[in-house]
Amino acid sequence: MALLTPEDLEDLLNKLNMNNNIIKEATGMDIAQICEAVYGTTPDSRKVGIVPITSGNGIIGNFSSSLLAITEYFGLEGFITEHPDITGYHQAVANGADIILMADDHIFVAHNLRNGKIATNHVCTGVIYSEIASRYKHTDSKDVLVIGLGRVGYAGASHLVEKGFNVYACDPNTDFMNKAIEELGVKAFDIESPRKFSMVFEATPNANTISEGMIAERCLVSTPGIPCALPDELVEKYDIDLVMEPLVIGVAAMLYSVL
Ligand code: 2YH
């Protein structure tokens, strides 16, 4: 799994505003409205305690401060604990946090201590990016392509199947592919017999996973993947609406999902 770098997190709210404009134009809703529609919640006076975690590769520069900025952007109050890890967790609870945000190298959680709801970044990211793809207003098709069936891709594919979309998927890992076919009923996308999609949800940590054979003229590509799945020249050539952002959209979904 890709670890975020401090550079990924620079200028985050600016990147969010740019993506929000694309999302609004492509779906008719902004990210907060899409989160409200998916989770049926609205931000209230909850207080979010952000706990830096030192295990594994350690603290990522800009990570906790980015979470605080995101929390405040979506109308919640937040604070970063002075200490990391268990001491920080204790501090967050002692200082009245309603929701805890914390991440190690494997999992990133939001836990609402008042109502018991817990959300993971990988599931929420899969759900929200696939939801964005599924709301593309410049198509009547119900066909959507999912590229990558790891934790994020599987969650998104599952969400799209539940929403009644016709889900095609691809992943070089045959175990992942078979699991998604058996458990979700997705169809295998075969690069040898390509078809063109207006809605693509991409969830891999690799560049250039999207090729010309997969995309229709004027399509929406929604991807949390770093680096970008699309070669630059295809974005212009196919007039692609590209939603791609490293952290904010997934964290917004986590917060809304535990409210
Ligand atoms: O970026 C990550 C991992 N890829 C998990 C994300 C799950 N989708 N973790 C962030 C680690 C943050 C660090 N421990 C800190 O600064 O607290």
From TrEMBL:
Q: Return the SUPFAM superfamilies for the record.
A: NAD(P)-binding Rossmann-fold domains (SSF51735)
Task: Return the Pfam families for the record.
Answer: PylD_N
**Domain Pyrrolysine biosynthesis protein PylD N-terminal, chain residue ranges per copy:** 9-118
Task: State the InterPro entries in the record.
Answer: NAD(P)-bd_dom_sf, PylD_N, Pyrrolys_PylD
What NCBIfam families does UniProt report for this protein, alphabetically?
pyrrolys_PylD
Protein name as catalogued: Pyrrolysine biosynthesis protein PylD
> What organism, scientifically named, is this protein from?
Methanococcoides vulcani
Organism lineage reads as:
Archaea, Methanobacteriati, Methanobacteriota, Stenosarchaea group, Methanomicrobia
